[in-house]
Amino acid sequence: MNLESVTTHTGELFVDHTAGDNGSKGAFLRAYDDPRGETRWGFFCANCGAADNAVDTMGRIECNECGNVRKPDGWDDAHE
User: Fold this and answer.
1) Minimal CB count within 10 Å: which of 19, 28, 37, 42?
2) pTM over 0.85
């Protein structure tokens, strides 16, 4: 795993550019607390570079900075 160090408002995170989930505006990349990727922190928005993201129990991810959204795992168009 090759992690990139990024500084956010929460401090230093280590981002994996090879693993993540697609969003409406860009990927949500996996972020870690440590440079070896042993402690998962959450997600990093590749669209705007923010680590301020909300995740719900359905797997929906939303960036609180730019509005980038990943639809829930159990998404059904009937719920729109």
Assistant:
1) 19
2) no
Chain-centre distance for alpha carbon 55: 9
CA–CA gap between residue 13 and residue 41 (Å, rounded): 8
* Predicted confidence (pLDDT) at residue 72 exceeds the cutoff of 90: no
pLDDT per residue over 33-43, tens digit each?
Answer: 999 999 999 99
Q: 79 φ, ψ to 5°?
A: -85, -5
pLDDT for 10: 74
Q: What is the rounded end-to-end Cα distance, in angstroms, of the chain?
A: 37
Dmax of the chain from CA atoms?
42
What per-residue string of b and e applies to 41-80 under the rule 16 or more CB within 10 Å gives b? bbbbbbbeebbbbeeeeeeebbbeebebbbbeeeeeeeee
